[in-house]
Amino acid sequence: MSSGNATRRQAIAQIGGLGALAAGIGSIGTVGSPAAALAGVAAPLAEPDALGLRHYVSRPDLTPPAVAVTSAKNAPTDPHYFFLTAPGSGPGPGGGMIVDRHGDLVWFSPSTDTKAKFNLNRQTYQGKPVLTWWEGAVTGGHGDGVAIIADKSYKVLHTIKASGDITPGLTIDLHEFVITSKNTALVTCYRHASGVDLSGFGGPVDGNVLSGVIQEIEISTGKLLFQWDSLDHVDLTETEAAFAGGTADQPFDYFHINSIQATGNGDLLISARNTWALYKIERPTGTVRWRLNGKKSDFAMGTGTHFFWQHHARLHPGELLSLFDDGAAPPEEKQSRGLILKLDTTGKKVSVSRQYKHSRPSLLAGAMGSMQVMNDGRVLVGWGTNPDFTEFSRDGKVLVDAQMPTASPSYRTFRSDWTGEPSGHPAIAVRHHGNGGRVYASWNGSTQVHRWRVLAGRTAGNLSWAGAADKHSFETTVTVPHGGPHFRAVALDSRGHVIGRSPIVRLK
User: Fold this and answer.
1) Is residue 369 within 8 Å of 383, Cβ to Cβ?
2) Are 271 and 256 in contact (CB under 8 A)?
3) Which residues lie across from 431 on neighbouring strands?
4) Residue 275 DSSP SS3
5) Tens digit of pLDDT for each residue in 417-476?
6) CB atoms < 10 A from the CB of 245, how many?
7) Global pTM?
8) Bridge partners of residue 107, in order along the sequence
9) Pairing state of beta strands 486-492 and 505-506?
10) pLDDT tens for residues 170-207?
11) Straight-line distance from the first to the last Cα atom of the chain, in angstroms, rounded to the nearest whole number
12) CA-to-CA distance for 66 and 54, rounded, in angstroms?
């Protein structure tokens, strides 16, 4: 293991209390699936190595974690792709990845020793689908980095940085990056505030804390449009976190902001993990309209509605609200759950509409996690620090259950359609096979390849057809009787049109 990987893994283990998970409940995230609920298995892929990584002859530089997907019989196949970010806390470098419904790789962008990737998602910018993610350094349970927008060719369109207009020195945090309908970016930041009285917690009078900051930034110009700081609106006494630190080297993380949503009336819904509460924020004043859960809830919490250390809160039509209820760490519940609540904002009451749990095995997340509600009522739950994600029907039937290697959870998991048209060339590698050759072809990020054609010849300037095969996975193997020694792979779409050509390689 490189020293860079070790440092990154140690930092990732601090996100949202994950250090406590490693100390006390690390064995809970056992890989497994509710097998009794699932009848069908996806098409088999090449076996990963002993560490759970996949390897490709044509792209030896790509070693993504394997994703094992089990699907129920007749499970819906749309949307086609899952969007994940392996954090690098397990084997391999981690990175942003798209896989298909069988778990086969579509695109992988590895992290580096200095730039981890989190929160890969498909969003819309200026009316077009884009990929978005965060990249940077993970330090002390949050991120110091930038937000990225890339187009369908995976070309970076915008690198968004935090504004220092009001608070100098801020950087964008890993927890949230939302593109609004106005083509602005909502991002989280963590501010190190000093001179804060922590004597009520047993800390210093002039202590140090982390506050949660929201910025709305105009993407095209980088102009700051709005900023909100938790210290201006949420008292330290609302925290549910055990006091720790309070020093310059270890500021007390009393709030831990981890999600933002722009609501229909222009207000914001935010989630703070360490207060166990959601806040409806009025713009432009920043006033808290209401709190849900936590020590100062404005709602009467009905049976089963309390949540703990939550993530990824979203409001939906009909006064429904979804979130991932971690339940730990430290543990307050026996199981994590995807939770849909019914809000009565007039009567200030809340009740459980639906909840979703992973039963075989029971999963409890010490941090992270997500819950996506799809248009037809299906939900996709990413189980936080467990390397699992599960898709349920509206009524709770397991449709898809998937796992990555045990030490490679995804911060969030999404399902969406995507058209990838990488600007580079397909990759090719050739090995001897009898009197002919075995060709390995791939094109990282392409969703349009339907078939591979192999050309071969004695000279690079005189190649002819040597064989072909339908694309069967990220890397397709084509065995041809021609000995070359020069080879090229040609990518064809579903109509038989050429969409890409690999470089010509010589079999040695």
Assistant:
1) yes
2) no
3) 438
4) helix
5) 999 999 999 999 999 999 899 999 999 999 999 999 999 999 999 999 999 999 999 999
6) 17
7) 0.91
8) 98
9) antiparallel
10) 999 999 999 999 999 999 999 999 999 999 999 999 99
11) 32
12) 6
